[in-house]
C-alpha cells in the first residue's frame, strides 16, 4: 500500500504563489500517474491537474496557465506550483495516485489527507 502526504498549503494574498508537495511512502509509485484535486466546503472534489509517470501532464481549464504539476520520481514526490492565486482557488487540495492517468476522482485508488490553501482578496 502507498501513503500520500500533502504539504505546503497556507493563506496568501490574491496574486501570490504557493508550491504544494505530495510525498509518497510505504512503497514507490513507479509507473503510477498522480493527480491533484481540490474541494471547497459543501462542494464537489474537482480535478486540478494530473501527470503520468513519464511526465505527460494535463491541467483543468480553470488553472491552465497559472498552475503547473510536476514530479521527481527519484524523490517519490509530486508538486503543484500555484501562481497568480485567486480567492476562488481557496480549497483543501488533495494528492491522488493510480496506475492510469485520469481527470476523475473515481479513477484514483490512493489519496492523501489534504492541505488547506486560502487566497484572500
Residue runs with pLDDT of under 50 for 5 or more positions: none
Roughly what is the average pLDDT, rounded to an integer?
93
**Structural class per helix/strand content?**
mainly beta
List how many beta strands DSSP finds: 11
Distance between the termini: 40 Å
Distinct helical segment count:
0
Radius of gyration: 13 Å
Approximately how much helix is present in the residues? under 10%
Q: Write down the secondary-structure element order.
A: EEEEEEEEEEE
Shape: globular
* Strand percent estimate: over 45%
Major sheet, described briefly?
7 strands, mixed
Structure description:
The protein has 121 residues and is mainly beta. The chain has no helices and eleven strands. It has strands spanning 3-7, 10-13, 18-25, 33-39, 46-51, 57-59, 67-72, 77-82, 91-98, 110-111, 115-120. The strands form two sheets. Strands 2, 4, 5, 6, 9, 10 and 11 form a seven-stranded mixed sheet that branches.
Amino acid at each position: 500500500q502507498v501513503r500520500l502526504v500533502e504539504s505546503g498549503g497556507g493563506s496568501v494574498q490574491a496574486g501570490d504563489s504557493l508550491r504544494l508537495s505530495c510525498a509518497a511512502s510505504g512503497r514507490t509509485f513507479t509507473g503510477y500517474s498522480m493527480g491533484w484535486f481540490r474541494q471547497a466546503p459543501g462542494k464537489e472534489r474537482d480535478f486540478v491537474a494530473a501527470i503520468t509517470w513519464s511526465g505527460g501532464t494535463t491541467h483543468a481549464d480553470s488553472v491552465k496557465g497559472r498552475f503547473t504539476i510536476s514530479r521527481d520520481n527519484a524523490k517519490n514526490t509530486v508538486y503543484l506550483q500555484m501562481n497568480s492565486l485567486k480567492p476562488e482557488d481557496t480549497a483543501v487540495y488533495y494528492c491522488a495516485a493510480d496506475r492510469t492517468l485520469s481527470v476523475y476522482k473515481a479513477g484514483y485508488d490512493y489519496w492523501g489527507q489534504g492541505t488547506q490553501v486560502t487566497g484572500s482578496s
